[in-house]
């Protein structure tokens, strides 16, 4: 594994029945970067995320995280879970638990000896990192807005102090103001904690604002993994339509305005 990489995917094939989603796919993620993963619907962005975190067993290939081999399986779930945090697309909070219990859930699962007091303190710290007041911990997920639930899910993903965060469409379903605040939060976490972030997204504003590099899934592979301005130069029909369309141009305009503010 090259020293600058924290994730390496080599020659991965994923297939469901006769439907080949990925064929001989390669990807590298570098330490400390935010990588945006984009592609048309059904190109396999979530399947790629699930493969990297060990939830989807590929038909072929090799996956390494921080030098540990995830496939062919060598690292245990515990080892892996100490390195990574995942924010799933729907937040996936436990509806019958309080917010604080949700945030503490990974600690409880992997550190049975942790005291209640310490777990509560850690939950409070993680909620605060995610931009929430500690008193939110006593509430139930159903009492919160969509934006707050995403923040709780982020706090839970951070519970084990991961080196890498995986975010599956973190701003989906948020209004533009909440989405923009969430983008800011993610950028702040990367800058203050030095996290590496793998972010599947359809949100062009997040790409322009947050991402150091962008990986594009098309034709069953990652066709380019590069800074955004390089990606936009690639003469591929999906890329040209996605970035050159009205929404792409608007997001680029917003970035320029934001950058010069
Ligand atoms: N467990 C599964 N069984 C069968 N097919 C699956 C399974 N998981 C994913 N697929 C298929 O794999 C393809 C890629 O799915 P995936 O959810 O990764 O797409 P995506 O790029 O994340 O799409 P979207 O942007 O719409 O969320 C889809 O055709 C999907 O139906």
TrEMBL record:
Entry's transmembrane regions: none
Domain annotation ABC transporter: ranges: 7-244
Keywords: ATP-binding, Nucleotide-binding, Transport
Keyword ATP-binding carried by entry: yes
Domain of life: Bacteria
One Gene Ontology MF term: ATP binding
Keyword Transport attached: yes
Pfam family, one: ABC_tran
Name assigned to this protein: ABC transporter ATP-binding protein
